[in-house]
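If you are new to this repository, start here. Below is one unmodified record pulled from the training split, so you can see the exact layout before writing a loader.
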Amino acid sequence: MRKIILASHHNLAKGMKETLEYIMPNLGDVTTIAAYTANTPVDQEIDSALADLTDTDEAIIFTDLLGGSVNQNFIRYLSLPNIHVITGMNLPVIMACLLPLGEEAIDPENLRQGIIEGQEQIIYVNDFLTEQTIDEEDE
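And here is the target side for that same chain:
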């Protein structure tokens, strides 16, 4: 079994899930943790989300902030097999990491490549369009 978890402070994870389901309707089951929106400590929400994982299962976990409390609470699970935590979640990174997944086990190198591809989508559009205009004038 593969579990995909989006975890954030407040409702970012829920909004991200809704957008992913719209763009990638066949993605499968995605769990969200919207920390600090309920009267449940974040570590208990995480424990609950990961409770059914076995040693042969895998989880891809996307969190909002490196060093944030949500991300820090997932760190203690990294000693378990097949747990992958990616922080700084945004739509391009999540999609680039999840699109190539098949039925086989996750290859961490594919996740690393997905992160790079997602990072390449972070662009200051003002400069990007200026560069495009300059390139068109050069031709």
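Two things worth knowing about this chain: The mean pLDDT is 92. The first helix runs from residue 12 to 23.
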